[in-house]
Amino acid sequence: MQNQDPGHDLPDGPRSLPGHRLPVAGHDRHAWYIPRKHVPILTFSQPFRASGFYDHLRQQAPDLNIEWYRTGLRRYQVVLLYSDKKSLQVGKARLKRLGVAFK
Q1: Does any domain span residue 22?
Q2: How many structural domains are present in the chain?
Q3: Is 50 among the domain residues?
Q4: I need a surface site. Which of 1, 29, 42, 49 has the fewest CB within 10 A?
Q5: Using an 8 Å Cβ cutoff, are 69 and 76 in contact?
Q6: pLDDT single digits (tens) 23-58
Q7: What letter would DSSP give residue 102?
Q8: Which residues pair with 78 in a beta bridge?
Q9: What is the number of alpha carbons within 13 Å of residue 54 lying toward its C-beta?
Q10: Which residue pairs from 40-43 have beta carbons closer than 8 angstroms and sit at least 24 positions apart in sequence?
């Protein structure tokens, strides 16, 4: 499959770069897996912006459970991953201390 995002050079197939997941077993190779328990922090139209924001947050808070994904054509989200309400609250509080507020 050709990359449908002109000027963007991510390879087709399973991603080995941060922010990308392998396909879900038993599904079409283009049905990418994104964990169910996540809250979008910010959405970008360019992958380098999502990657840069992700890297910035990682430098400020290496223990923060975040990831970034391509969620559609020209849509890249940095998300907070969580396993339960407590980890969600802790993650949101950590982001708030870093100056990142969201719903």
Answers
A1: no
A2: 1
A3: yes
A4: 1
A5: yes
A6: 444 433 334 555 578 999 999 999 999 999 999 999
A7: -
A8: 42, 68
A9: 25
A10: 40/77, 40/78, 40/79, 40/102, 41/66, 41/77, 41/78, 41/79, 41/80, 41/95, 41/100, 41/102, 42/77, 42/78, 42/100, 42/102, 43/71, 43/75, 43/76, 43/77, 43/78
